[in-house]
Prior knowledge:
This protein has helices at 24-37, 45-55, 65-71, 73-81, 83-100; strands spanning 6-7, 39-40, 43-44, 60-64, 114-118, 156-161, 167-171, 199-201. By secondary structure, it is α+β, with helices and mostly antiparallel strands. It folds into 2 domains: 6-121, mini-chromosome maintenance (MCM) complex, chain A, domain 1, CATH 3.30.1640; 152-205. Helix 1 (24-37) packs across helix 5 and helix 4 crosses helix 5 (83-100).
Amino acid sequence: xxxxxxxxxxxxxxxxxxxxxxxxxxxxxxxxxxxxxxxxxxxxxxxxxxxxxxxxxxxxxxxxxxxxxxxxxxxxxxxxxxxxxxxxxxxxxxxxxxxxxxxxxxxxxxxxxxxxxxxxxxxxxxxxxxxxxxxxxxxxxxxxxxxxxxxxxxxxxxxxxxxxxxxxxxxxxxxxxxxxxxxxxxxxxxxxxxxxxxxxxxxxx
Length: 205
């Protein structure tokens, strides 16, 4: 980033200043500040990027790794050492941030968002990958010799009982295969119980 100037300021975006440092709540606070305050050449980079994505109905926000590192080294390190968990926290923080600032993002709705990371870090050689680097974030270079059609996996599953109409939302970990409970919990404590396998998956609303 030679020749570029990066500016940012802490405007106390969230009222939650008592969060314990290093916790997910603290990481969420840092990421909201990053989204709101990161500025380059007098432009709020991610404010402008969010506006564009919302206008085009693309619920994916590309984040530059170098921007994160320049803004807050702790946030960058947390992401580097635990990318799966911190990415999930960042996506939740993004959704919460848009709710808090409805006046700035008038076209935003209650959609699910995905955070995509982009990096220009120097790649390491595949033969230099060590066991200590498993589950951490790093860059490798290579040539794609084959590809298959992407397989979409759910991160959240909403189900409803066909008998009592009880709704339930199941959070799925990354890579976890979706499952539907065999028994409904809606009639718990009542004499009458719903039949087995009464849940059905609901379509996106």
